[in-house]
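wait is this the right file?? whatever heres the structure
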């Protein structure tokens, strides 16, 4: 009798629980929290991850993809060469333990577990701005057709009669089946008319634009959005300057689904500062020019040159940018990102101080053009990297210009080519860049 009493509870426990993680206990909450911004009906990802039936057949694929850290999309990774001192705001990366959970679940045969004792699903976080002062909507929507990705620019008039200080911007994609990512620029006031003309040209209120800066002359990048991103917020006490009379231009990267899609009329919530703030701005530094100095590198033929020969793998271009003058004040770096085109595979940015010390700002070791963005440091402005006159910025871009690079295959196919070509610096699809994107503010 005694023996039975001991054995029975053991058997009972065995019959209802399964070894290792289950869908209802472990994986469903993880997926809802970390994949739910995109892998749900009507969002950008090509398949849903909502039910057990969605996930069970691809359990191994989920484990592989999360282990490779390609999902969730997040380019800024720690490497042997680069571990930025501060963490990233809204870091989307899974922890090692969470990645191990996907693998353990797949290895256990992707058990469902018991729906009646399912772990609660996390409630979606509040992703809006704390205050919306103005919402801008383009005059007309845009209907995405065809098979290939396209870039379309929308002109927005914030109606400023005096200089505005923008502290927050939220992109509200309308048809989020097709909106892949969005960059928002503010123009110089004097270019407003030229920009309005561009949008009037084909009567759509929009104009076609490439992946580069769509503004005719000056202007600044002010915000970037990709699925799952939180709104742009400048650091506390800082704001971006938008001139009176300026236009905002939203460049939307559309990813057609191959079926007829409803028009997209993405809107923009803005939050302005009522109090004086220090200026925050984004700047792009790199490529080749008189100040950013291209360093000698592999495959240079004669002189130092930015050329990635057809077929070259592991080719690097290195650029050094001396900061001769920060305008009489130290600058704080609150965000960092990388920019290349299709041939790029890895980029690293290091801030070299005058006294010989170095800080790695960011590295994107698995560069993916489709998921480009910049990353905001977490913490107070006082802890963030400081740039002083005499410092320099070192950038190293690595390229794979061979057919082994899937992005190269895709870019060539789009141009009707079947073999790699020499790639030089430029704006076109089959040209390259090596640019640092930095968010800067005057040191407070
Ligand atoms: C920000 C949006 C987003 C988030 C968050 C996201 N995905 Fe994805 N996922 C996509 C898109 C879009 C694709 C299609 C391929 C691409 O564009 O990179 C994709 C593709 C995939 C693929 C196919 C991989 C391949 O090589 O094509 C897998 C597997 C996947 N996601 C799993 C996940 C898992 C698991 C999570 C959460 C841990 C997740 N994704 C989070 C948007 C997202």
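ok assuming it is, sequence goes like this
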């Amino acid at each position: 009798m005694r023996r039975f009493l001991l054995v029975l509870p053991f058997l009972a426990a065995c019959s209802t629980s399964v070894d290792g993680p289950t869908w209802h206990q472990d994986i469903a909450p993880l997926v809802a929290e970390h994949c739910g911004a995109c892998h749900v009906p009507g969002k950008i990802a090509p398949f849903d991850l909502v039910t057990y039936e969605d996930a069970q057949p691809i359990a191994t694929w989920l484990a592989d993809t999360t282990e490779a850290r390609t999902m969730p999309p997040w380019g800024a990774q720690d490497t042997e060469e680069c571990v930025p001192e501060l963490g990233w705001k809204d870091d989307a990366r899974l922890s090692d333990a969470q990645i191990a959970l996907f693998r353990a679940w797949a290895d256990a045969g992707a058990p469902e577990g018991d729906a009646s004792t399912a772990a609660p699903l996390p409630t979606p976080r509040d992703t809006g701005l704390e205050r919306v002062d103005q919402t801008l909507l383009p005059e007309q929507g845009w209907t995405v057709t065809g098979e290939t990705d396209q870039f379309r620019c929308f002109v927005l008039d914030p109606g400023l009669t005096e200089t505005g200080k923008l502290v927050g911007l939220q992109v509200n994609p309308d048809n989020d089946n097709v909106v892949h990512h969005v960059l928002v620029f503010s123009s110089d006031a004097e270019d407003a008319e030229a920009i309005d003309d561009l949008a009037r040209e084909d009567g759509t209120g929009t104009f076609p634009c490439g992946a580069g800066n769509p503004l005719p002359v000056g202007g600044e990048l002010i915000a970037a959005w990709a699925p799952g991103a939180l709104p742009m917020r400048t650091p506390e006490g800082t704001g971006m300057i938008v001139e009176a009379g300026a236009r905002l231009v939203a460049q939307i990267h559309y990813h057609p689904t191959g079926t007829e899609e409803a028009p997209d009329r993405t809107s923009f919530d803005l939050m302005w500062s009522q109090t004086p703030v220090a200026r925050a701005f984004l700047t792009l530094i790199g490529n080749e020019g008189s100040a950013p100095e291209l360093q000698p590198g592999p495959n240079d033929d004669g002189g130092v040159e930015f050329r990635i020969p057809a077929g070259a793998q592991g080719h690097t271009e290195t650029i050094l940018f001396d900061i001769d003058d920060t305008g009489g004040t130290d600058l704080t770096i609150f965000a960092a990102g990388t920019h290349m085109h299709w041939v790029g595979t890895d980029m690293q940015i290091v801030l070299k101080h005058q006294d010989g010390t170095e800080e790695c700002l960011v590295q994107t070791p698995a560069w993916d053009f489709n998921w480009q963005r910049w990353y905001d440091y977490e913490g107070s402005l006082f802890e963030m990297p400081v740039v002083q006159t005499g410092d320099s910025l070192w950038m190293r871009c690595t390229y794979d210009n061979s057919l082994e690079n899937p992005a190269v295959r895709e870019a060539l196919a789009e141009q009707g080519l079947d073999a790699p070509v020499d790639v030089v610096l430029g704006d076109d699809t089959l040209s390259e860049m090596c640019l640092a994107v930095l968010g800067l503010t005057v040191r407070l």
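The two ends are 77 Å apart (CA to CA). so i think its the right one actually
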